Amino acid sequence: MKYKSPRGTRDFLPKEMIKIEYVTKTLREVFEKYGYEPLNTPVFESLDTLRIKCGDEVEKQIYKFKDKKGRDLGLRFDLTVPLARIIAGNPTLLKPFRRYCISKVWRYERPEAKRRFREFLQADLDIIGSDKSEADAEVLAAACDCLGALGLQDFFIKLNNRKVLEGLATLAGIPIKRHLEVFRIIDKLEKVGLNSVRAELKEKLGPEAEESIERLLVFIRKKEKDLFQMSKDHQYKKIDDQTGIRRLIEGLDEMVKIKKIAGEYGISEKIVIDFSLVRGLDYYTASVFEIVIEKGRDFGSVGGGGRYDHLIELYGGERTPATGISFGIDRIVMVMEKERLFKLPKIKTKVFVAPVNGEMKTEAIRIAQTLRRNKIPTEIEVMGRSLKRQLEYINKKGIPFTLIVGEKEVSEGCVVLRDMRNNTQKLIEISHIPQHFN
């Protein structure tokens, strides 16, 4: 029987892990430059915790199980819900509370070749406690710096606001109780196209809602300048129910502020207004964003997020504004591979210490330990192979340097340093070994 990893999951061999670690290290460095601090949570939560405000579609994707006491648990589907639980349970945390988390999440989705997985690695950063547009702009600026640090330049960030969507839906005549249902369908627009979205909306809302559906689809496809002008148009001021127009204007004003502050960060050209952007999670309350890399469109968005001002109070905490953004590490790696942006060694080991025979093992271990204490990644022979076989192994693995420990050389206080990249070698003093690799 051939054993495989479960469908939708993958094994990562060293060459893949080196790339993943490079990306996570780069993101972590940028996060910390912006003042974010690390935080992590259990990989599973009580099922009730996960169900709060996740939406029907996401609930279907939760990996659910019972523990030995019969308690209902589930694997976390994102890193935001556990954060909200922590904030609710720790009201004395100093605000604003900036946190980042790089960890795995799970969703029972249908895997699509090279695009979706059931287990994937996310990197999140969030600001808790600020309801200002400055907070939204800051996470977008940090996101831009992260992608820039990875060598990715041809990206843009879609920006919308749930208040705008709510206002447009109300103006179109969609009942408020059907808004979330409608938004989930609109969220599929880029994936399935306008005709499929129109057909699904008609199926869900019925033929009597056809006019409202068409009005809404016209609204969300308007250009930025047209919708901003529409919000100021006197004909909409005369509508009896002013809720829609008020929500629309409030959301548009917030978008204007974010773009203005983004300009102060020097990233305004990266932000594109997209009134069809929804984001699938129900807990978003205002701004929503999505990161798209032009040459990586085949892989979908590489990140997204938004503002979730009511989520923390759902977990028993005080009403606390919050905003954040999340990267899909797997997709970033795939885009970088496609663009050949990785300039990394195949292997982290820098030196192999090769004793010529069994009598030299003790000296080889001593040399290897000296290198390791000097933070130089070092391997040593443990198979009892001849020097020829050791050198074959070193070449196949791609280790750049070999220290050959021979009796004659050691008696003179030396070893042979061989550069495996160009097949040159020289004698060096044992006491000076570390300085050759620093």
List keywords for this structure.
single chain, 438 residues, alpha+beta, BirA Bifunctional Protein, domain 2, Rossmann fold, eight-stranded mixed sheet, five-stranded mixed sheet, 18 helices, elongated
Structure description:
The protein has 2 domains: 14-338, Bira Bifunctional Protein, Domain 2 (BirA Bifunctional Protein, domain 2, 2-Layer Sandwich); 351-436, Rossmann fold (3-Layer(aba) Sandwich), CATH 3.40.50.800. An 8-stranded mixed beta sheet has the order 1-5-6-11-10-9-7-8. The chain has a 5-stranded mixed beta sheet with strand order 13-12-14-15-16, sandwiched between helices. The model has no long low-confidence stretch (mean pLDDT 90). Helices cover 42% and strands 20% of the residues. Helix 6 (162-172) runs antiparallel to helix 10, helix 6 packs antiparallel against helix 13 (243-265) and helix 9 packs antiparallel against helix 10. The protein is α+β, with helices and mostly antiparallel strands and 438 residues long.
